[in-house]
Batch of 4 targets.
Target 1
Amino acid sequence: MNVLKRNNVRVTGRGSRTLLFVNGFGCDQSIWHYVTPAFYEHFQLVLFDHVGAGLSDVAAYDPGKYTSLDSYAQDVLDICQELNLHDVTLIGHSVGAMIGMLAAIKEPVFFQQILMLCPSPCYLNEAGYRGGFDRQDMEDMLRFMEQDFVGWADSFAPFIMGNPDRPNLTAELAHSFCQNDPSIAKQFARVTFLSDNRQDVARLKTPCLLLQCAQDLIAPLEVGDFLKACLPNATLITLPVAGHCPHVSAPTETLTALEAFMAA
């Protein structure tokens, strides 16, 4: 198995310290282009695509394998092993943050810090927990995706981006969604939005940053409070911005928070 080809791994940058970027659902590594230039001179940057997204090897996708986020976490560990990485600072967005968390729980030796952008261990509203979606609404959304993937991308992208005054960002996200293999994206969506990793959270011992947005329809503020209460070694920062993709819509504020945490 060629791990680097499977996940279209790209290594760039000039520094000795490694940043590993883990994309959220529906995005490939290009989604980080608003923030990566700031890191180029002082870090080694490792970017990749989940199987089925971007320029990954679609032939490597096994629907029997990718039935949980654990398999995506193993892909992250495979990349770390293949590149002989150590003391990694992992930056994960949305479900990518949970994938990074699971990887660090399984093999903490690789990781120095976990930086989570808009993370959520569970997107569903349950007794005593507000994840943001009632189960019926989530099932309706996934059914819409099954029936009309492009229509879903066009209607859901504004909901995720959360900046209606900047339609170019919404268009960029919708375009990213449509670059995915639709059949793989549909399964990954079910794995993402119906996953529940709340019981795993307390197992993470790696120092981490929880970076949330003040107005986020995908991961409401209660999610950040839950994670902060459960994580033994976490810092919670709320950016005064809207949306679920601050590395796209608010890169300056995002970079300021990430750099301050890494420096500390």
Target 2
Amino acid sequence: MTIIIVLLCIILLIVLISAFKVNTFISFLIVSILAGIWLGIPINKVSSSVEKGIGDVLGSLAVILTVGAMMGKLVAQSGAAQKIASSMMQLCGEKYIQWGVVATGFLIGIPLFYGIGFVLMVPLIFSIVYKYKLPVIYIGLPMLAALSVTHGFLPPHPSPSALAIQFNANMGLTLLYGLIVAIPAIVIGGPIFSRALKGIPSKPLTAFVSADLPEAELPGAFNSFFTALLPVLLLIGATVFTLSPDQDPALVHFFAFVGSPTIVMLIALVVATFSLGVFQGKKLVDIMNIYIEAIKDVAMILLIIGGSGALKQVLVDSGVNGQIATLLKDMDMQPLFLGWLIAAIIRFCVGSATVAGLTTAGIILPLMVSAHVDPNLMVLAVGAGSLMFSHVNDAGFWMFKEYFNLSMKDTFKSWAAMESIVGVVGLAGVLLLNQFI
């Protein structure tokens, strides 16, 4: 009955948005409240779940998305994105530009949280697409596939790192196995799958489209790349320092502070304000106006993502994930496949890859130990399952839909299908690797 209620809620949300054209954020609020009541949350607690869900998801993403939007708009308006796009095209050529952005997404995705990588890379994708008249999904989806796979499979991202600790896996070995599994998942779910999506109509947000400036007015290539990639460099540097042995605890704490996503994005924005703004002859007041326009561009996206958090929290508070886990844990299946399946079903119902992964860990751990399954592979199997079935209760689904300005149907055909492909290929890679380890 629980799964039926979840399915009805998802269908209702799609109908409200697609058929009746109800504002997406309002639709989320309505469905979240109804879901809470139908799933048995005490009626006086439903609004608390909704508010907590909105607060939790926006608490972690609001600064990243807003500051990232400001930085992205400045990178576009200053001509830095145009310079980066032309440099990448010269390096890779139009024939191989897709592989160039995939490699960029993979390298950036290892140290960066998905949300940060998304808001940093979207302006670059749009600049390449508009300057060279290429299909936007064909170019954009492979890069986002790389970001998604690194988020789900590879430490130091939160879910795989937490799973490695719970399963007593070796973090370095998990990362090595994860790289082996991640590469084919990215290639199949990204460049190969996106060839079938060239015809999807998409007119991305114009806020991040770079002005086509004369070459003489563009910032230098080093300035453009350094400023755009500064958040990545800061995160990598801070992470490497804090992991180094025999460091002064005060310095470790300082670099942990500097390496937090909020502080990294703020530092990068301040640097960009000068390197791509003031030092390029722009007035500070004009730069601030660019930032104000950037906030307007992403305001509704923030609300929609908050709404998806409300639905996720209602489903978590109702105990949906625990009920599903109880139904599945006694099934007689290969442990790696069972771990993947439990994570996939919880992900479908709850919407959060992290919740799906961590919920599955507590259920599958006893079976993993008794069956002597390699814990490093179990981390990857659960991680692959947690990427499956991304749809309307997942914030990533809405980020992709709204930034790329797609219909619901085309978002399912592109984003949701890509996430399931990388999840299935990831499982296949884990099962194959299991034959040799």
Target 3
Amino acid sequence: MIIPFDTLLLFFLTTFVVVLSPGPAAIAVTAEAASNGFKRSLFVILGIAAANIVYFVLSATGIAALIVASSTLFSVIKWIGVAYLLYLGLSALLSRSGPLSIKPEEKQVGRHHRVFFRGFIIEFSNPKALLYFSALLPQFINIEQAIIPQLLILCAITFLLDIVCYSLYAYLGWKSMSVGLKPLAIKIINKSAGAMLIFAGLKMASVER
């Protein structure tokens, strides 16, 4: 077996916990599903998964280690993420039609590529994802075995967990609207999502190499 079962299980459980933990990506997926339906939120999920695949490949090729080692590159990625999260959070708090506005009567159609790109940017600009993959992968790679097959297996597991875990968040967001929430509840969800994104952005700003 290329990767021992106990190693695969440990990688699966570790990544599962990290992905399932609430964060900017989970908030964005939940809000998109609540606003525009479960199917549309899948494009956000695919964007998030695509960003993690990019980070996975960068980590596997050692580029991620170089980015982490470079103060300038790391800071650029970090502050782009901080700015974008603060923008989304403030938009949800202050604008009736912000990107996280949870209002079922204001369905948006088309422009799926923009929804995908939003998910990609949210995840790709999160330096924690960069640090996680660059620190995690070496622990599960056996250099005495063929490396590429190992990376493909671990990447497939990561992609699967992204789809499953964020789909759960999407389902919860979609279900919250299908039961018919009152305007006050919708407003509370809206403002809470905005506040959580701002908090996540501020926490991201404190991340150090």
Target 4
Amino acid sequence: MEMNGSERIQAPRQKVWEALNDPEILRQCIPGCQSLEMTGDNAMAATVKLKIGIVTATFNGNVTLENIDPPKGYTISGEGKGGVAGFAKGGADVSLEEDGAETVLNYDCKAQVGGKIAQMGSRLIDSTAKKLAGQFFAKFNEVVSGANANAQA
């Protein structure tokens, strides 16, 4: 599965970059995220509970950041195991472009799933992935833009 898009965020690029590297902000924004902790300089451990179709699973996984180019972007990749439900793994290239006082966040994602969740069909998995990505970026935008508005007030 592949997905790409962009999100306009009403905050300067440096602030968006800092938020993309803040585990607490990411935890708030990732749908179903129960925990997200730094385990190394560019590594995190995550627990995420998701419902895909009729299957609800808790995924435990690791996330790594590579190709780090502050404050322009990075590659984020991860893999999670959900027990009998299966696994999910993938990554995204994320880039940040300044546009006046705003920042345009571009993303290009690739992901794959296996196990029970893969048997649900690509249409359901793709629509669920797009929905989850939409929820993440809407919340991320709200948190970063809101924090920026509060700082200016």
